[in-house]
Fold each of these.
Amino acid sequence: MPTWSRSARLDREATPERIRARQVNRYRWAWWLSWLLPLLGVAVVAVWAGGTATTWPDFWTRVAALLLVAAAALAVGGLLGFLFGVPKVLSEGGSTETPTDPAAPGVHGTVTNAVRGGVTANTNLEQISDWLTKILVGVGLVQITQAPGAFGRLVGTVSGAFGLANAELVIGSILLFFAIVGFLDAYLLTRLSLTGAFSAALTGAPPAADGTKGP
């Protein structure tokens, strides 16, 4: 098929609905990753609990306790990932111009995000995220030499409640794994979802991938 005819066909098929659907499918791997990694950690926790428990009540007790530890680490990592991933919508006292998608039919140039309908974007969340991120990075760099000791004390305190052999190794691995997974998942999903939601709210474009318009 000639190049020009194929390009013309793609242009005819490049409806807003198809464009949004392709954008969603392009990042579908991130959604799968956000589910598969935590499930992998839960499976490893269940295997370890099953290898150390002698009865079913003991098994479920250990699984529940380990999952609570994993959920806490996942929540902490997810909060940090969210703070680092909050998109920058509008600089205070000014406006930002966002280039439009070249593939979008009938839309060219830039979109000004300063004011829409006489209402400016609320940037409190963005400012808080920026402040907390800088504080966390600054404190982390200053106290980085104290981090291994603090983490070791945390692992020792949590693993002492289990009273099992190799509990410190298992608890330390759970905390590190789920904290990192929570950070990555929250950062990716915040960047991929929240950015599009903010952009749709400012430009008036329907955020749904299937082309349905919101109320």
Note: The first strand starts at residue 97 and ends at 99.
Amino acid sequence: MTARPKPGSKADRDALRHDMTGAGCTVADVAIEMRIRFRMRPREAWRHAYGWTLQEAADRITQISSRRPGEAVAADASLVAKWEKWPGPSARRPTPAVLLAMADAFACRVENLLDLDDRRALSDRDLRLLSGAVLSPAPEPTPPVPRASGEQTEPSRSDLVRLAADESVTWAQWAEASNVGDIALEQLMADTRTLASDYLTSDPLPLFTRTRVLRDRVFALLEGHQYPRQSADLYAAAGYLCGLLAWMSSDLGQLRDADTQGRAAWLCAELAGHNDLRAWVLSTRSKVAFWDGRVRDAIAYARRGMAYRSSGTVAVLLACQEADAWSQLGAESEALGGLAHTADTRGSVTGEDDIGGIFACPPARQENYAAAVHLRVGRPADALRAADNALTLLATQPVRAYGTEAQIHISKAAAHLGTGEAEGAFEALAPVLALPPDHRLAPVTRRLSELPVDAGCPHTSGTASVGLRAAIEEFCLDSAPRHLVLSSGEAAS
């Protein structure tokens, strides 16, 4: 015994459309009945009223939207399905241009494609645009002719040739359309550069939000249709933005989330085929691995990144990161050899960085790494020289990165402690302790909390030592990572 199809199945839809069309009902009547009987969303009901597949509807929308100058829509089956489901889960909001194109394709009014849920979810601006829109003239699609069960209609030879030509021109119109232009791509990259630069001097959380919004805009564009070279540019922008989110997440103490962003950034770099981006993503992942205690992974990422031989300063940063990781392992010869390699790499830089800001390694940043490496391998005098050099170089830069500057001061303080100069250490730490809470990032709080205050102050009064420890503890408690943890409701450790 054959099981009866479930209500709303293709068989039920075809039977309903056949019966209603045979009784002289309009397509609008069929769509209304589909909505009521099978509880469909309005846009899905109109498509089934014509008996179109998702791809057939997509082709019609793409073709007919080209009649609206500047409002061409590149649709495919997946997008049509998401537009139909909106505002439900796993859906995508149709823009006014999409809704107008769908109304043209279905030869109906835009209002016929919207129900109460749609209207509540649309912005007031979109509702005003749609209420004043005029549909472009479009012939009403011919409803399917009712056929007897099992009847097949074969096109004539001339019709077959014409149909093939129509199919090709429909595809060509779809292939020619793009949801992003070269000027828009240029603006996206400019906005990404601004974010990467602003991060050096701005509060991290508001900038994180701005970066996330721009990343989502790029992701949405990638779900549409564009030329392959434009897709590559969009993937590159998405990769840099995910890399920036990874860097920020790490600085906010969220290392697991940072690693997730790093993996997404790497996928974008691979899809873009962009070697400079690959190198910067691997630098970001090396940073995350280092602060997560996966030091050998940090070395591996840095070495992989250097293999791409980028023309910008990322190779310098990667060499610094490898030396830093070796020093954390106590491997003095490898760490000092890595520092020597950074100097050689600086001399081989031949181009500009694509993005800049946090995705650049100026000389002051290089000297900051050198100071940290010298400290870990027990060379405080060399660390002090490197820290002083870094501060001098930083003063000449148009933008002073507060995170880098704080770490330089901490290295300087540690070097003074290592040589028994407690007063110099207290003086070096004064600018760090004065940082506003939103600028107290995880690498800064961690390095500050690791300072050997007691060991470095054997001749200093116990009161001074206790006071410095208390100031450091208060600094770390009132920091950006700490605020993030408390705001999320997690237990404070």
Note: Residues 365-488 form one domain.
